[in-house]
Amino acid sequence: MDGARDATSILQKVLATMPEMGAAERRVADFVRTSPSDVIRMSMARLAEECSVSDPTIIRFCRRLGFEGYQEFKLQLAQSLVPSAPFAYEQIIPGDSIDNVVRKTCRNSLNAVQRLLEDLDPRQVEEGAALLRNATWTGIYATGISEVTAVDAEHKFQRLGLRCQALLGPKRQWMHAESARPGEVSLIFSQSGHTKQMVEVAVATRSRGARVVSVAAGDSPLARVSDVVVAVLPYDRTELMTPLASRFNHHLVINMLVTAIAMASGSEFPDQLPALDSWQTDKI
Known about the structure:
One of its GO terms (biological process) is carbohydrate derivative metabolic process. InterPro entries: Homeodomain-like_sf, HTH_RpiR, RpiR-like, RpiR-like_SIS, SIS_dom, SIS_dom_sf, WH-like_DNA-bd_sf. Keywords: DNA-binding, Transcription, Transcription regulation. It is a single chain. By secondary structure, the chain is an alpha/beta fold. Helices cover about 55% and strands about 10% of the residues. It contains 14 helices and 5 strands. The protein has helices at about 5-15, 25-35, 35-40, 45-50, 55-65, 70-80, 100-120, 120-135, 145-160, 170-175, 195-205, 220-225, 240, 245-265; strands at about 135-140, 165, 185-190, 210-215, 230. The longest helix is centred in the middle third of the chain and has 22 residues, at about 100-120.
C-alpha cells in the first residue's frame, strides 16, 4: 500500500468494507474507526483482546484493506494519521461517539495552542499593539470565515475604548480603503495571507498614509505589504485538516493584542475587559 495514503482514506475504506466483514472483523473495524490513535500503540494481541477476537481475525482484517499484516497496517496508520498537521491531531470521523468528539476537539485545540506558543514572536504582538493603541481609528478587514474573527476583534477593542469598526464585504471594504488617512490603522486577518482582496486592501490603505497590521502567514504576500505582521503559521492543509483549531489561534492573538494595549494604557487588570453594559441588568 502507498505510504502516502492518509488516515482519512484508510478509515473511509474500513467504513466502506464493513458490510463485507463478519461480526468479529466488524468489531475490529469499529475499534479502529473510533480509536485509531489507540490502535497504533497496541500489539496485535492487545487489539485482539480489546475486540474479543483471535489473532487470525486481525490478520484477515488487515489483508482485506490491502496490507500484508498487522505491523504494516499499524505503521501506515501511525505515519499518516495526520499527514500534514505539524502538531498532534486526531481526525474526527463518521461513527465517532460524542465522547470521542468532545475529547478530540479539546485535545486538537490544546495541541494547536501549544504550537502557537512555540511559533509566535511576542515582539510582533508588541509592535502590533503599539500601532493599534495609537491609531485614530482602526478598520478591521477579513473575508470568508475570518469575518467572525474580525467581529470578535471589533467587540473587544471597543470595550477598551478604541475607535474601530469591522468592515465586511468587498464594497464596504473598498469604500473605506480608498478613504484611508494618516493616523489610521488597517487590521487585516487572513489565514493564508494570499487572499487577493486582503492584499489589495493593504496596498490601498498604505498608499493613502494608513498603517497596516496583519495577522497572517509570515511568508506571504499580505505580510510583505504590511507594516507589522503577527505571523501565525498557516498549518499545511489547514483548510482540510485543521480549520477549527487553526482559526482558534487567531482569536488568541486578538486577546494578546487587547491585553498588551491595556497594559500600555496603565490598566490595573489588563486581562479583564470592562463591560460595555452595566452588570445591573434585569435577570430572569
